[in-house]
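Sorry to interrupt, but I need a hand with the structure work. It will help me judge whether the discrete encoding reads sensibly. Write everything out right here, beneath this request:
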Amino acid sequence: MAEAVTRTLPAQFIEDLGQDYGKQIAALTSLPVDTSKFAPQVAAQDQLQTAAYNQATDAATGLGSFQPFLTKAATAADAATGLTGTGAGTGAGSIQSYMSPYQSQVIDTALSEFDRQAQTQKASQAQQALGIPGAFGGGREGVLQAEYQSSSDRNRAAIQNQMLQQGFQQAQAARQQDFQNQQGVATQQASLGGGMQNLAQQQIKGLGSLGGIQQSQSQAVLDAQRQANQTAAYEPYQRLGTYGSGVAQLISGYPGQSQITQTPNASALQTALGVGTGLAGIYGGLTGNNPFKAIGGMFKG
């Protein structure tokens, strides 16, 4: 009895598409993907950020630019401190440094004039004493002259001391004024240094902020390029995936074709030969002889 086998096959054009899809996906997946084209990258520091860093670390510029002012302030402060001595001696900062260089000349001139007037007064007093008959003897005149000389010396010393005291006070006042001036200079230099420091800090902050904006923009460009490279690398896979989805939809949605395969019955001769072959095999296996020899001999006669 014949046997019938029924198979449902897709349309030929769908089968062709499926075979083409299989070839393409095998070829595509055999190629490695170059992931270096879309590896993550970090944008380098912007030039403004580099400038801000250099200014912050360079001792000659940036934050270090106020150092000369601080140095001057320290020098002025040291000079002012040097003026707080006792005022003795001739070293820097002493009262002697502020004495008028003409003071000794003034004192010498004043004392010379005092001596001249004293001698004139002394001579006039002697003449007056001599002009009075019997007023003074030699001893009395000597005593008078001695007293005058002693008084004159005291006056001379008092005048000299007064002039020295005035010179000292003037020098002391000048020294105090110089001290205040030096303190003012130190304060001013320190203030200028602080102002320069603030300006430098603001400049560094501004450069850093602008540099950060530029770096962010560069990073955004790198990220966009990376995304574009990744999209380009996987575009064939996405395209082939779309192709495969379309083929799958066609297979599932397009009606298939039925194909029936029949196996015909064997003829009488085939059946007999089959039976004979089976029996001959059995007989031969038992006796070791080939029964078809006899049959062959029959056909030869």
Observations:
- The first strand starts at residue 3 and ends at 9.
- Strands lie at 3-9, 257-263.
